[in-house]
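4.2 Preliminary Data

To establish feasibility before requesting continued support, the project team ran the inverse folding procedure on a target of 487 residues. The structure was first converted into the token representation described in Section 3, and no sequence information of any kind was made available to the design step. The complete token record follows.
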């Protein structure tokens, strides 16, 4: 659900087969770490995958692996400008398109981009077919570049959002951040087979709207969530050369406070969009809204984050093995949406609780909420965990497989050690199936943290990322595929 590739990378991969108790695969050494989110994985027949990786502290690349993390080929960006950064990868006419930019990231994590380049890689061999500068950018404002793929990983467009920040740094960080969120225009670039880039669509912005989020639809459209000058939160569907549909979300909030959002399109019904919105009214609020862009209707499930609601959740939520639900008050101060998904006519919302603590962040308990098609509550599932990290981030990752929700979650095992939870929920019967600790060589704890959010889901198994911050790993990077067991 993140929009920017994070720098919390994976140092090694573990494989877990859901239907087996003990793994017997031999250990596989790898000199790279996966980067990006689960969406940054391109899937091919026989469960083979292509993904962006980090090869050393200064070099990124692309690798193709099988379902046991065995490396088939690897391409690295060595020898390029040290400021070059990867925008993303996508399938492209049977091959792999890699987009990079000269990214001189600043303190606000937005890039100064003047050049975007495309590299076409043979999907079978990893050899370079063509490299080409797609275009150069000139202007007086910073831009945000985002590669848009469809659900099968095929390239759709390159989105370039022109902000209203003129690039002048200063002490007024709030002004800079506000101007970064404001937009002058959005350009959608098409790329031809010879890597010629042209502006397919351009959407001019005639007022100081705030950009919150965007997502591509299976049919090639673009959904953008804005706030306009009148402080209305608006979801717009762009298709072709203009706005196809526009819905003002019925949101009553304190206009002086920030809004945090998550978006998910229903792949089976592209006109349906889930909006998860964190905002403040009198209390902190979370609204999960189902928006129908075709009929221009909204249905919402609202949660008021206060002590009364916390007590209500303790009575309503179901823990594994019918254990009593106790939600720590300190973690309930900050509740945020980790993941949104659809299952048939149901909606799944995963929320995590947390709190800042001594120059780090504690990601606390998780709540998996299942709603019906009218956004009425069906059941809350409670996961007790605590995970200390450098900042707030998703420590739960989930995947709908048939009628089951599979999920993994970070959990601290003790001082300097880490644990990993694996759970299953029957979405048809709305009941727990499993919740257990993943074991490595009969141990329940790991010396380096497992990154739940970087989990790669396979039909009957998954690859789990293990590793700390790359700055702690030294110049050389080594990964390892270990045997794993669970009960």
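Position-by-position output of the design step:
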């Amino acid at each position: 659900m993140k929009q920017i590739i994070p720098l919390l990378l994976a140092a090694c991969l573990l494989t877990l087969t859901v239907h087996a108790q003990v793994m017997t695969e031999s250990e596989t050494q790898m000199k790279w770490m996966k980067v990006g989110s689960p969406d940054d994985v391109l899937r091919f027949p026989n469960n083979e995958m292509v993904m962006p990786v980090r090869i050393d502290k200064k070099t990124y690349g692309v690798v193709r692996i099988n379902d046991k993390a065995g490396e088939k080929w690897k391409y690295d960006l060595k020898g390029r400008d040290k400021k070059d950064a990867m925008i993303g990868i996508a399938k492209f006419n049977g091959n792999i398109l890699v987009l990079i930019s000269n990214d001189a990231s600043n303190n606000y994590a937005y890039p100064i981009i003047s050049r975007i380049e495309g590299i076409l890689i043979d999907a079978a061999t990893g050899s370079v077919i063509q490299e080409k500068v797609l275009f150069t950018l000139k202007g007086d404002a910073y831009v945000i570049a985002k590669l848009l793929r469809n659900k099968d990983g095929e390239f759709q467009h390159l989105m370039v959002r022109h902000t209203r920040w003129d690039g002048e740094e200063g002490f007024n960080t709030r002004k800079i951040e506000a101007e970064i969120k404001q937009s002058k225009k959005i350009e959608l670039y098409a790329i031809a087979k010879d890597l010629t880039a042209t502006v397919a669509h351009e959407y001019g912005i005639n007022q100081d709207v705030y950009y919150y989020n965007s997502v591509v639809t299976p049919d090639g459209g673009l959904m953008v969530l804005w706030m306009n000058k009148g402080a209305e939160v608006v979801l717009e569907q762009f298709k072709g050369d203009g706005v196809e549909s526009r819905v003002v979300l019925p949101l009553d909030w304190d206009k002086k406070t920030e809004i945090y959002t998550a978006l998910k399109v229903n792949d089976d019904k592209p006109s349906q969009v889930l909006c998860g919105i964190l905002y403040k009214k009198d209390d902190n609020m979370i609204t999960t809204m189902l928006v129908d862009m075709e009929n221009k209707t909204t249905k919402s499930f609202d949660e008021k984050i206060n002590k009364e609601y916390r007590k209500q959740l303790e009575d309503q939520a179901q823990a594994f093995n019918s254990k009593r639900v106790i939600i720590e008050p300190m973690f309930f101060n900050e509740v945020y949406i980790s993941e949104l998904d659809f299952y048939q006519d149901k909606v799944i919302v995963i929320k995590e609780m947390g709190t800042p603590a001594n120059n780090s962040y504690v990601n606390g308990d998780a709540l998996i909420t299942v709603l019906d098609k009218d956004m009425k509550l069906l059941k809350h599932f409670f996961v007790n965990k605590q995970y200390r990290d450098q900042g707030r981030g998703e420590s739960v990752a989930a995947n709908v497989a048939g009628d089951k929700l599979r999920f993994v979650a970070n959990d601290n095992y003790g001082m300097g050690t880490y644990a990993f939870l694996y759970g299953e929920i029957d979405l048809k019967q709305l009941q727990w199936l499993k919740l257990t600790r993943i074991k490595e060589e009969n141990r329940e704890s790991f010396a380096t943290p497992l990154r739940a959010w970087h989990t790669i889901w396979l039909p009957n198994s998954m690859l789990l990322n293990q590793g700390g911050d790359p700055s702690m790993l030294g110049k050389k990077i080594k990964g390892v595929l270990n045997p794993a067991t669970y009960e």
